[in-house]
Amino acid sequence: MTALVWFTRDLRVHDHPALRAALDRHRRVVPVFCFEDRLLGGRHASGPRTQFLLECLGELSSALADRGGGLVIRRGRAEEALPELAAEVGAEEVHLTADVGPFARRRMDALARAGLEAVAHPGVAVVDDLGEVRTQAGGPYTVFSPFHRRWLEEPRRVVLGAPRTLPPLPSGVAKGRLPSLESLGLEQEVEEPPPGGEEAARERLSRFIRGDLREYSDNHDALGRDRTSRLSPYLHFGCLSAREVEERLPGGRGSEEFRRQVCWRDFHHHVLLHFPRNARSEFQQRYRGSISWSYAEKRFEAWCQGRTGFPLVDAGMRQLRRAGWMHNRARLVVGSFLTKDLGIDWRWGERWFMRLLVDGDEANNNGNWQWIASVGTDPAPAYRRIYNPARHMERYDPNGDYVRRYVPELSDVPDEHLAEPWNMPEEVQRGAGCVIGADYPEPIVDHAEARREALERYRVP
DNA sequence: TTTTGAGTTGTTCGA
DNA sequence: GTCGAACAACTCAAA
Predict the structure, then answer these.
(1) Rounded mean pLDDT of A420-435?
(2) Where does A125-157+199-274 sit in CATH, by number?
(3) What's the pLDDT band for A232 if we cut at 50, 70, 90?
(4) In this structure, what are the phi and psi dihedrals at residue A452, rounded to the nearest 5 degrees?
(5) Is the CB of A270 under 7 A from strand B?
(6) Residue ranges covered by each domain of chain A
(7) Which nucleotide, over all strands, has the C1' atom closest to the CA of A150?
(8) What is the pTM of this model?
């Protein structure tokens, strides 16, 4: 008996329930990854993320080969390529890790229609059956805190080790080759991307647990220090299982806080599972079609390029361009700025993030964009989510380390003018080599005025 | 069914 | 500079 193991966003050998189940039940196991043009060229296409994916796959392939097996690479629609491969190797079922997005779920249905039995296993979230976490009334949760309380009580599965050995691939099966990024029609737009792969992921997790986790509660919001885990890309592609991450937390205040952040990931996945239409429209019905979003392209472009004239916003956006990643606190500030100060449709911001973020994840990205746009699951009123970039800089980047790292024009601006450089007297501007309007942009909006207009927009009957 | 407590991460204004 | 109040009433989830 032969089975396929279809890898999607679970690119690891440790703690992999689908792989383990296939090995337990079948003598021959054929691991496969399928490049889908729909994903590579669709609205979530991304050069940086695909490059990261290629690195993960290269390493996964070696890890499987080191254990006696291998990874088959195919190109095309899964519901065509997988039944084809199944026929080649005489497999009747395919094991995979269940996912929550609308696309992943449609794809799984298509596979069933194509006549290949698909067996889904847990492995993306911490909790096994996210859809079955229910309120007492039997419905899905839409507020984080009650979800979190319940989530802490949910049963957990046992963390699995990596298999020691794997059966060899059937002789004669075409293994296929990893494509190059260029051949996929994509380019690496990011200068300093994180390295992909399970090894890098496990190394980073260990380092985080030994180091910054202890002081995580106090430091995770400090932009200049940047003591976050940076595990998000690895969690997105499943180089690490979220369940194993949780299991390895040693306890204590930092662990509690970090675990709560991991719970947000499960929460966003839970919400998207139950409300797939969120992928395209507002979770809150009262805001669907009732807010007149701006589509001002020049302003959007200024935001994308980090040239808004607000140092913290620009630093965040340039970090995204440079690293394919942005500090969470900065994501909130740039998100608030785009949707509240510029009044631009949150979907534009969501799309730009998906293009550059190595950790770009439909559930998390959509959930967080809707949250900061005040159209999602956040119960707080919009006026509490209009962030002042200057106040945020004073609070979370008081020495300007973060801003100066990513906005070099401002390196010599004195601390007291860094949050609002447009208020610098002219001779100070010249002294700092930063003339506003020449070396660094004028602010593209007046925040106080933009705030008043935003409050108007959200005043929906 | 009704009631009750609570809701990630704020900002501004005026005393 | 510091502090408390206002922002605007609403909906979720559990008891």
Answers:
(1) 94
(2) 1.25.40.80
(3) very high
(4) -60, -40
(5) no
(6) 2-124, 125-157+199-274, 287-457
(7) C13
(8) 0.96
